């Protein structure tokens, strides 16, 4: 009787472990809605401006950069300083482009990080200060003003003989919280009765799952999919007074996204990334490499000492070595998942560079049931 009780107890523990593992795996595969979608209209806007960085230690633009000289002269004239253009030197000044991103809900007085990039032939922006620069949007309106000390996160030291040491890119820098918002974007979120949700990666299956999850959470048919990447949400009457709270709750809904089977290959770095849905039909893979190494050496032949006849000659000598790989033929069964594919390719000794050729051959043979994307 005691043995039977222990057996039931062991079986119960096994079933509990299985259900817990299933729940953990299912939870790990789910993604929050805020991590896979964004609300229509809630996006950042790019700002750009042209300005001057001053205070450089002789690393600014040269005399050949005429727009820097012109900008500096115009600025001094607006400040009431009349200086002949031919007397202006810009060794300590650099013309720069200033860029920033304006968030959708930025208000007047909010701070923005700005990126400063050299336009001319300045050697470094180290130690420079950006003068007051208006940042404009695509509509030509000024939305922010930027000014402050430039941080390049590196350095450049050049010796008198021409050598030097450089870390990072000294002609590009940042100013943390270097811009102040002066104009707000005209967008009132609180009066919306219909909200659009855009998926970062459009997919019909993911859109359908998202609609089902939202309707289940709100207990009504309030969401519908317009297309593979757009979901239209009719705001319930009970939540129109608190749209921010509604969206905060919807952002936490967990959804299992779906994606196409895809193999991404980066030929520049030899990187290969495969999705979990990649499948391969029954195919035999054999990968062997042919290595040919040629060494050229030159031998010098000299006559004996005090020889009357003879001369020094150079004779070339070539050493050619050929080595062919002996990889065995490996059979990959139909429906193999990504783990089995990786194990099979490792068995034939394929390197990341070899995988590029193998996947291209599999796609050409019609055995790779996935999209092959080469970047």
Number of helices: 6
The largest pleated sheet is described as: 6 strands, antiparallel, barrel
Beta strand count: 23
Physical arrangement of strands within the biggest beta sheet? 3-4-5-10-7-6
Helix content: 10-25%
Average predicted local confidence, pLDDT? 79
- The radius of gyration computed from the alpha-carbon positions, rounded to a whole number of angstroms, is 33 Å
Structural class label: alpha+beta
Order of helical and strand elements: HEEEHEEEEEEEEHEEHEEEEEEEEHHEE
Shape: flat
Unreliable stretches covering 5 or more consecutive residues: 10-28
Strand content: 25-35%
Distance between the termini: 66 Å
Present the secondary structure layout.
Layout: H1 2-29, E1 31-32, E2 37-39, E3 45-54, H2 66-78, E4 93-102, E5 111-118, E6 129-136, E7 142-149, E8 155-158, E9 164-167, E10 172-181, E11 194-199, H3 204-218, E12 223-225, E13 230-234, H4 243-250, E14 254-255, E15 262-266, E16 271-274, E17 279-280, E18 283-285, E19 290-301, E20 313-324, E21 330-332, H5 338-347, H6 352-365, E22 368-369, E23 371-374
Parallel strand pairs: 15-23
Antiparallel strand pairs: 1-14, 2-11, 3-4, 3-6, 4-5, 5-10, 6-7, 7-10, 8-9, 11-13, 12-13, 15-16, 17-22, 18-21, 19-20
């Amino acid at each position: 009787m005691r043995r039977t009780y222990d057996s039931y107890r062991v079986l119960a523990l096994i079933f509990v472990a299985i259900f817990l593992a299933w729940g953990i795996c299912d939870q790990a595969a789910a993604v929050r809605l805020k991590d896979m979608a964004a609300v229509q209209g809630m996006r950042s806007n790019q700002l750009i401006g042209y300005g001057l960085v001053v205070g450089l230690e002789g690393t600014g633009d040269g005399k050949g950069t005429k727009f820097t000289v012109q900008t500096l002269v115009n600025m001094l004239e607006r400040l009431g300083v009349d200086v002949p253009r031919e007397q202006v030197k810009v060794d300590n000044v650099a013309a720069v482009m200033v860029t920033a991103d304006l968030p959708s809900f930025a208000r007047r007085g909010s701070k923005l990080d700005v990126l400063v990039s050299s336009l001319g032939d300045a050697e470094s922006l180290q130690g420079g200060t950006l003068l007051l620069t208006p940042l404009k949007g695509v509509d030509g309106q000024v939305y922010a003003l930027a000014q402050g000390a430039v941080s390049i996160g590196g350095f450049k030291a050049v010796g008198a003989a021409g050598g030097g040491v450089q870390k990072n890119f000294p002609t590009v820098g940042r100013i943390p919280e270097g811009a102040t918002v002066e104009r707000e974007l005209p967008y009132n979120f609180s009066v919306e009765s219909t909200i659009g949700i855009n998926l970062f990666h459009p997919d019909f299956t993911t859109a359908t799952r998202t609609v089902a999850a939202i309707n289940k959470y709100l207990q009504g048919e309030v969401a519908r999919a317009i297309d593979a990447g757009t979901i239209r949400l009719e705001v319930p009457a009970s939540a129109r007074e608190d749209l921010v709270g509604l969206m905060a709750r919807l952002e936490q809904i967990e959804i299992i996204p779906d994606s196409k089977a895809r193999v991404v290959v980066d030929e520049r770095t030899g990187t290969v990334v495969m999705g979990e849905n990649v499948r391969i039909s029954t195919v035999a893979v054999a990968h062997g490499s042919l290595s040919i190494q040629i060494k050229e050496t030159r031998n010098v032949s000299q006559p004996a000492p005090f020889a009357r006849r003879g001369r020094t000659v150079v004779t070339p000598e070539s050493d050619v070595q050929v080595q062919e790989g002996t990889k065995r033929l490996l059979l990959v069964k139909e429906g193999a998942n990504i783990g089995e594919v990786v194990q099979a390719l490792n068995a034939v000794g394929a390197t990341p560079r070899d995988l590029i050729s193998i996947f291209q051959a599999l796609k050409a043979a019609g055995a790779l049931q996935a999209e092959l994307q080469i970047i």
